[in-house]
Amino acid sequence: MDTTLSPAQALVTIFTEPRRVFDTIPRRSMAYLPLLLALAGHVAIWVWYYQVVDIAWLQDRLISQHAGLTDSASRQAAASVLSRGGLLTMSVSSALLVTPLLLLVLAAYFFLAGRALGQGRPYRQWFGFVAWGTAPALLLVPVMALQILLNSNGQISPEALNPLSLNSLVFGLEAVSPWHGILSSLNLTTLWTIGLLAFGLHVWTGRSWAQAVPAAVLPFAAVYAAWALKIATGA
Known about the structure:
about 0% strand
């Protein structure tokens, strides 16, 4: 019996029975769905956010984070760059460029990791693997939308849109802290994604959890370790 899932079924099943999605990917990747949802969701959030945010408040907040911007001329020049349209363009461009690039790089890593673990699947399948394995990040879109809805005066910073980050949940560092960025980027969906990718590796390669988990953790640990080292050394 054909147990291949439809795209709509996969979108639900990845959160409830992920094994069925990973079993379907070799026959029907459907990688376009989580990718398009991630792109459309984040573009919609940023368009909405920059329509309602108090732009004067946000500009003052962003400018105050740069100690070198002290005189009025430099602050005015910065404000002109940090306009509503300018900030929207930067955020949307980042979402449209960074998300696919990260998936491409991550798929390349798992393509090589899979070969090392004895699973020589084609790159196309590994791209589907990471596209669905990172699906928990889609949950950030409704969470961010809720933060915008609950804010009544438009004075909410971009990082405050994600209450699931380690910075929001545990550390509470201000934006001027050098550790603010890294702790704001780490969130509960990141941990969920790592667990899901480890599970997928376990399913696809038949290797033990002791091998699948480190392989799934490695690319994330490498990036965050390098980021933390850069901050610690002031490089």
